[in-house]
Amino acid sequence: MFDVIVIGGGTIGAATAYYLSKQQIGKVALFDKGTIGGGAASWAASLLTQVRAKTDTIPLVQETYRALEALEAELGESIGAKRVGSLQIAGSKKTAASIESLAEIATQFGIANHWVDAQEVKAMVPWINEGKVLNASFMPDDVFLEAFVLANAYAKAARRNGAVLFPDTEVTEIVAENGRVTGVRTQQGFYAAPFVVDAAGAWSNLLSMPQAIPLPMAPVRSIYWITRPNPALFPSTQPMTVIPDAMAYSRPETGGLLFGIRDRESPFVHPRELPETYNGRQFIESEKHWEILLDEGKEFREFFPGFEDVEIAHCITGVSTYTPDSRFVIGPSPRLEGFYAATGCVGAGVAMSAGFGRAVSELIAGQPPFTDISAFAPTRLGDFDPFSDGFMEQCSAARANKKDGG
Question: What is the pLDDT of residues 362-396, one digit of tens each?
């Protein structure tokens, strides 16, 4: 028997177990059908950019920054966050105006930032075409990291606080009686708990829908590429970049460049067709990812004039959970007492993980959340079918129109 069961050992689920274990509300269990951090976290680009146009998301990412420091202190080891900063790069007057708004938001939230001109951008990012850059806002404290390492740091700290970890243990059903959660069923048997947190990411609706709880999210394909190492062109100290005019982002990656392009067609993957594991699975044909680079990557190549001379080493695809309104899914459902959702990360699950975890743990502990999460309520869209093609196409469109990084 447990007091709270968390389903899903990615960054969000592991963070939730960590914060619940700090609440000292009883025994906490964390279940994952694979290894901790081995799902979506294993391929996430993991840009922890702090400033966001939707200002109610910023406290969530700022909580993750606080958690990074706390985890390193508690565990006595580095999580490997690379503090290279980030550049919001404007290539048009319209984008320059939106970045100016972001800079004002950053100042409002105490996020260090300053303007840099095209020549300064070129000095920091050797591959950039400075002729395409009007200006840029530099956020020097932004970091990136490996999400797998972060998920395992959350889990290790949770275990130190008394949480019990169940890797390689698939939850097959959320069990309820008389409108109240009673626990979960796994392939190894039944585990009792009055509270269950569905942090299963792309699989979340497969667990919630048998209890008639539709969660407003769907798995949508994400894609990025990694070049072969070229330390002169891609120094490890170069900042992350977000280039809205090219619908692109980048960060350094072991002497090469990791970059993503928001393809216009980001297809959804039906939850029932998801593989048991992401290991080695690609969600795109090799010909298609080259088409995206050649066609939809045209604007990015204009910012990167030497692109044709760079060898691509890897194309990485996976799925992330997107919502029609680009809002997260955090909180309880009135349809089932004791059920909580922590999913629908909108491609920012790593950056927001501690915020998700803290908010859910406070709700379960009967405390007001540290920040307003009312916009992320699982019930905000009313009744709908999360498995319908029409709904999932709305989620795909939200991903295709996303312009911020991470």
Answer: 999 999 999 999 999 999 999 999 999 999 999 99
Convert the pLDDT of each residue in 31-85 to its tens digit.
999 999 988 888 899 999 999 999 999 999 999 999 999 999 999 999 999 999 9
- Taking the C-alpha atoms of residue 242 and residue 239, their distance in angstroms, rounded to an integer, is 10
With vertex at residue 87, the alpha carbon angle to CA 302 and CA 38, rounded to the nearest 5 degrees, is 95
| Beta pairing class for 180-186 and 189-192 | antiparallel
The per-residue pLDDT for 281 is 63
309 and 189 belong to one structural domain: no
Residues 6+ apart with CB under 8 A from 33: 168, 169, 170, 171, 276
CA dist 8 → 198, 290, 360 (Å): 7, 33, 14
Pairing mode of beta strands 171-177, 240-243: unpaired
Give the span between the Cα atoms of 332 and 341, in whole angstroms: 6
Domain assignment present for residue 238? The answer is yes
Residue with tokens 């460049």: 257
Domain match, 41 and 159 both: yes
312-356 pLDDT per residue, tens: 999 888 889 999 999 999 999 999 999 999 999 999 999 999 999
Alpha-carbon gap, residue 67 to 135, rounded angstroms: 32
What three-state secondary structure class fits 46? coil
Distance CA 346, CA 61 (A): 13
Average pLDDT over the chain, rounded to whole? 94
CB 179 within 8 A of CB 189: no
Q: CATH number for the domain including 138?
A: 3.30.9.10
H helices, E strands: number in the chain: 10, 19
Q: Are 58 and 105 in contact (CB under 8 A)?
A: yes
Q: How far apart are CA 163 and CA 32, in angstroms?
A: 14
Within 8 A by CB and 6+ apart from 260, the residues are 45, 222, 223, 224, 225, 248, 249, 250, 405
Q: List CB contacts of 36: < 8 A, sequence separation 6 or more.
A: 9, 14, 30, 151, 152, 155, 165, 167
Q: Which domain holds residue 9?
A: 4-76+146-217+324-385
